[in-house]
Write a structure and sequence with these properties.
Layout lengths: L1 H13 L1 H10 L3 H15 L6 E4 L6 H10 L3 H10 L5 H12 L1 H10 L4 H23 L4 H7 L5 H9 L7 H14 L3 H16 L2 E4 L10 H10 L3 E4 L2 H11 L2 H13 L3 H8 L4 H11 L20 H28 L14 E2 L4 E4 L2 E4 L18 H16 L1 H13 E2 L1 E4 L2 E4 L14 E3 L2 E3 L1 H17 L5 H15 L13 H6 L13 H4 L3 H10 L7 E4 L13 E2 L4 E3 L9 H4 L4 E5 L3 E7 L5 H7 L5 E8 L10 H21 L14
Parallel strand pairs: 1-2, 2-3, 3-7, 9-12, 12-14
Antiparallel strand pairs: 1-15, 4-5, 5-6, 8-9, 10-11, 13-14, 15-16, 16-17
Length: 672
């Protein structure tokens, strides 16, 4: 016993500087002891629900609905509380109110033709929402719930959620408070606040497994919502890193972003939402390419987002061609600067036979579908002409000066990473590059070899250089080039294919050249032993799970999103409307509660307007991946480990107070 005490006091003595800092927050034994009790109680609460989404691709309406409904979790809570007393249609209506309170509320109020009917509806709805909110708040401490309450009505909501009825009648007590809320014209505000609180408390953590940008109409709305979310992390996708490079001022990343945006006729979002000035690009495009045959440059369009006039399509197509040729020129330059990328042979402007109008791909030559290259000098194909230089300069300036874009990208860097580990789950967007034998592929960068987890860590660090490196420095240039490599490099963990065949798809008719060979990872991830090797590489036991995105699951062809004997799950089921025909569904999400891990399969979402009007939910199928033998508690999670360490430190602080090594503050607030 004495030996144990001596070891403990030696440890406290060694930690006195840290404990003195901790004492600023807990200036007495009573304050520290109170926090110990609070943390130990928190350890015994059920684990919070985690919600996983991937490959959103700018589909803001579908994202908002999945976020609001928590992939069906909210409806499950409504059914649990009211399933025995309320018809299904009425529960669907209440769920829609929770998803979209400000949009649904006027519609429901309009059905009340008298003041008495409106008052009765207010009373019933408020009481139903309070009961649902009490259920979702039961997994949280009262202190945490109080922290989630809005200041304007937090005290009353706290009273409604935590009142005890041993000494008074519940219906009478609630009736008095709710009646007062209605009488004072505050019912609408309380309904909206309760709906938001239910959504907040139902999901503790949101994980976004990559690809927020491209194809869909409003990635900016998605980012705005994520910034306001109470607890979120992001694993970068290849469509994200190229936007990160563009915001950093990388010319090649800017051209790549514009090429993809124009290919899907989504440049209006860049202009209207991010303030990117495309006027100089359009002028240059019309000057050099305005009279060309633009048939292969016409954008992909979505009839639901039309109509499109001939003039609109022409302007988009002519800019699409101009920016693509500018991009191919810059690709030559980046490949030259970075032999480590091993992309020699993809500098296609140098592989064109200008007389024969063919291009060499590998050992074979193919005829070009478009032979007009008015801005390309055959003697030096990668050289920019003065007009292109001016356009590029203006575009870089516009991307760098977009305040909203910079805010969004800084958020991606702050909350994002190449991979993330939490509560026994390994999250990453693309792949851990592998070789054909199932080992981790080795890459060489800057004179060193990387594979497995070390490669992922290296990619993360070098990607940050591209944005945070000193202006004009070699490190910043290197990092920006690498962000482009992460977008399309053959061993990029975020891409996972042999090549991004953009040039081939545009210029060569033979579909054999369009093939993008998947990394061997995508064969090996069907093997349970390979998945267990990946988990071990990241320090996780074989019972853990890998959550993967990036490659849409072809469910309509019988493909399963569950791989490797249940060790890996792919949650890219095609959120993007452009993928729906290919996948047959509209995305997967994952929900990990204190009792189960479940995969949710979603059908296409038509519109938020129709969902509000007709109480339509995204039709979803729930597939239980794993059921726990016992309810997972906070003490079983990563958060629990942090709390236990904190309790240990606080106990040391209490001992330091008792030994007189740290003086106690005299403060009545901390006496109990």
């Amino acid at each position: 016993m004495e030996e144990t005490m001596r070891i403990e006091t030696d440890e406290i003595r060694d930690n006195l500087k840290y404990l003195a800092l901790l004492a600023r927050d807990y200036p007495s034994q009573a304050a520290a002891a109170s926090e110990i009790i609070s943390n130990q109680a928190l350890l015994k609460l059920p684990k919070g629900t985690e919600h996983f989404m991937s490959d959103l691709h700018g589909e803001n309406e579908a994202f908002v609905h999945i976020l609001n409904s928590a992939s069906g979790v909210i409806r499950e809570k409504v059914d649990a509380v009211l399933g025995g007393t309320m018809p299904e249609a009425a529960r669907a209506e209440l769920a829609t109110l929770i998803y979209y309170p400000t949009e649904k509320l006027p519609q429901l109020k309009a059905r009340c033709t008298t003041e008495d009917a409106l008052e009765q509806w207010y009373t019933q709805t408020l009481l139903q929402l309070i009961d649902i909110c009490r259920l979702v708040s039961s997994k949280h401490t009262r202190d945490h719930v109080r922290g989630c309450l809005p200041s304007s009505c937090g005290y009353i909501l706290d009273e409604l959620l935590h009142a005890h009825f041993e000494d008074h009648d519940k219906d009478l007590y609630y009736g008095q408070i709710v009646g007062s809320i209605i009488e004072n014209g505050r019912a609408d505000r309380f309904i909206v606040r309760l709906c938001e609180l239910i959504k907040h408390l139902a999901v503790d953590k949101l994980h976004i497994v990559g690809d927020l940008f491209d194809r869909g109409p409003r990635p900016d709305i998605i980012l705005d919502l994520l910034i306001r979310h109470h607890n979120v992390d992001i694993q970068w996708g290849n469509h994200d890193v190229v936007w990160m490079g563009a915001a950093a001022g990388s010319p090649i990343c800017i051209c790549t972003v514009l090429k993809t945006t124009l290919a899907y006729h989504n440049h209006g979002m860049l202009e209207d939402c991010y303030g990117i000035n495309l006027r100089h690009l359009q002028r240059m495009a019309e000057q050099f390419y305005g009279e060309d045959d633009l048939s292969i440059w016409m954008p992909h369009t979505d009839a639901a987002r039309g109509p499109y006039t001939e003039g609109m399509l022409h302007r988009c197509a002519v800019m699409h061609k101009a920016i693509s040729i500018l991009m191919f020129k810059l690709e030559c330059q980046v490949i030259d600067r970075n032999p480590d990328f091993q992309m020699q042979g993809r500098d296609y402007l140098r592989r064109i036979d200008w007389d024969a109008h063919t291009v060499q791909v590998g050992e074979k030559s193919y005829p070009l579908r478009d032979t007009a290259f008015p801005t390309v000098d055959p003697a030096d194909p990668a050289k920019l002409n003065p007009d292109e230089q001016l356009v590029l300069q203006k575009l870089v300036q516009s991307f760098r000066q977009s305040e909203k874009l910079q805010q969004h990208i800084e958020f991606l860097y702050a909350k994002g990473s190449v991979y993330h580990i939490e509560n026994g789950n390994l999250l990453y967007h693309g792949a851990v590059p592998m070789n054909t034998k199932g080992g981790f592929a080795v890459e060489h960068f800057e004179g060193r070899r990387y594979s497995g987890r070390a490669l992922m860590d290296y990619c993360d660090a070098r990607a940050r250089r591209g944005y945070y490196g000193a202006e004009g420095s070699a490190a910043r240039q290197s990092g920006q080039d690498f962000l482009w490599y992460l977008w399309c490099g053959k061993l990029s963990p975020l891409f996972g294919r042999s090549a991004m065949t953009t040039f081939e798809r545009l210029y060569i008719a033979d579909p054999a050249t369009h093939t993008e060979v998947k990394d061997p990872y995508y064969s090996w991830y069907n093997d349970e032993a390979a998945c267990r090797r990946i988990l071990a590489e990241f320090g996780l036991p074989g019972t853990s799970h890998i959550v993967n995105g990036h490659v849409p699951v072809q469910e309509k062809n019988g493909e399963s999103p569950i791989k490797g004997g249940g060790r890996l799950v792919v949650i890219d089921g095609g959120f993007c409307r452009a993928y729906h025909e290919k996948t047959g569904i509209a995305g997967y999400t994952l929900v990990y509660s204190s009792r189960t891990m479940s995969l949710r399969t979603h059908q296409p979402f038509e519109s938020a307007e129709k969902a509000v009007r007709e109480n339509l939910d995204i039709l979803s199928q729930k597939n239980i991946l794993e059921t726990e033998n016992h309810r997972i508690l906070v003490e079983d999670t990563d958060e629990g480990e942090v709390l236990r360490e904190r309790v240990h430190d606080l106990k040391q602080l209490v001992t330091a107070y008792q030994l007189g090594w740290i003086p106690e503050a005299r403060c009545e607030d901390h006496v109990w």
